[in-house]
Amino acid sequence: MADINDARAALKRYFGYDEFRPGQEPLIGAILAGRDALGVMPTGAGKSICYQIPAVLLDGLTVVISPLVSLMADQVAGLEDNGIHAVYVNSTQSPEEQSAALAEAKQGLCRVLYVAPERLDTARFADFAAHANIGLLAIDEAHCVSQWGQDFRPAYLGIGEFIARMPRRPVVAAFTATATERVREDIVRLVGLNNPQISVTGFDRTNLYFDVIKATPTAKRQWIERYVAAHGEESGIIYCATRRETEALADDLNARGASAVCYHAGLPPEERSRAQRAFVNDEVHVVVATNAFGMGIDKSNVRYVIHHNMPDSIEAYYQEAGRAGRDGLPSRCTLLWCDADIMTRRRFIDNESENDRLSAEDAEAVRARRRVLLDGMTGYCRTTECLHRYITAYFGETGETVCSGCSNCDGEFETVDVTDIARAVSECVHDILTLLEPNRDGSPRGLGAAKIVQILRGSDSQEMHDWRHLDSAPTYGRLKNRTAAQVRDVISQMIADGYLVVADGRFPIVLFGPRAVETVAPDFRMTIKRLERPAGSAARSA
Ligand code: ADP
């Protein structure tokens, strides 16, 4: 049986590399030993090698399930260049080409076969799978199985069944770049990974300086104008929430002597590609864009990414901000935000029209999930902890993250003591657990953050009086002198810091987190960021 030394030799022989990158060795080692694996690494960190090396060492064929039909030919060509024979079957081929590829794979004439998840469901492929000698099933972009993410793809739900129908279960290895705890659990459960080796690595981008600034819309604008003027020769991307804002801001920057183009999905395709080309070729320095910009854009010398508005999840933020500094040189990622950004995002979730095709209950569940993602994002805006650490912890990276530069570690904020609010919140969670009976399976019942705010502020809503006597909770009305926003901020921060957790379920509920006991200690203190910072103070360069 091949082991990790064989893997290292194969790394050198087929790919020309001497060392594995972080995370690759444990994953490859597990696969070679016959154990399932889940690799979570950002794009470009080296996931493909984790199944390509076992593919040349294991007995039998490696089937790679990938949603990216348009990239399959490239992936196959890349492997062929390295001397690894691979084929693909997809809808771009004629039926004859498809049969030829499958025949080659069945006869063991190639090492790797790429297919899209939709194909698993066809009778032809089922017949193939029943007769081929498949040693490894690798699932690329495995987060598509989860409805928690943005890229849910129903066909991924069929993978588990497909595996169950195979006459001999192969080793199964799933890979993804975007996986929070919840998505990871979904992958393990829905694909049916068996005690997998899980490896989460490579999320920290040490050359990026992270900066969070709360500012009014006017102050945001001024900050950006100043920053762009002071960094005139550098390439930068400025993300705005709406098409109108991108146009107005690009005009404004140009009027002040900068060279900026705007980019959004409402522009004619020629204009979009012209803007993109001008930016990639350094003919203009700044692109002011909506989130439509960035997919497949390969520009390594982006020195800064500024967000004029807060995105709706850390996943989205990190993907966009991560377009800075691909060349490894110091670059800056600044997030400008204000309370209105949060309200806009909340309103957007409340009114989402794509939910129209779902049942009312399912639509509410989707909304509840989006709100949890949004809480992760607002937690980033408000945290007083290291921003690098916040991000790596969000993605579930377990190793120690050492800050390589962020505005929180530079101490660019003042704090407010919110110990009394935090204690009251903690007691309120306790009250709720006492008042509500546990579920039938013994798991605790709880309430969402909005209800906790209502109880603490002594809301007079009928529900408070009628339902389980919430108004009899000892903490009912304890924080009636505080605003809902203040209490909500503290709850978000308590979740971000691990005093509370949001538990999975159809509706997210707030329960005690691993650090909850600290809130009853006599010396417990909690502070949060005082969020008003003069906008001018941060316009100096990173
Ligand atoms: P991902 O699938 O995670 O996006 P890839 O597998 O495409 O990433 O790898 C990204 C790049 O890194 C590729 O050019 C690959 O050859 C290279 N790479 C992967 N592993 C190593 C390694 N151990 N040493 C050096 N380069 C590596």
Summarize the structure.
This protein has helices at 4-15, 24-32, 48-57, 69-81, 95-106, 123-131, 159-165, 181-191, 217-230, 243-255, 269-280, 314-321, 339-351, 360-382, 387-394, 419-435, 449-456, 462-466, 484-497; strands at 37-40, 61-65, 86-89, 112-115, 134-139, 171-176, 197-200, 208-214, 235-239, 260-263, 286-289, 302-307, 331-337, 414-417, 500-503, 509-512, 527-530. With 542 residues, it is α/β, with parallel strands linked by helices.
Architecture overview:
The protein has 542 residues and is α/β, with parallel strands linked by helices. It has helices spanning 4-15, 24-32, 48-57, 69-81, 95-106, 123-131, 159-165, 181-191, 217-230, 243-255, 269-280, 314-321, 339-351, 360-382, 387-394, 419-435, 449-456, 462-466, 484-497, and strands at 37-40, 61-65, 86-89, 112-115, 134-139, 171-176, 197-200, 208-214, 235-239, 260-263, 286-289, 302-307, 331-337, 414-417, 500-503, 509-512, 527-530. Helix 5 (95-106) links the parallel strand 3 and strand 4. It is globular, with a radius of gyration of 26 Å. Residues 532-542 have low confidence and may be disordered. Adenosine-5'-diphosphate (ADP) binds at residues 15, 17, 19-21, 24, 41, 43-49.
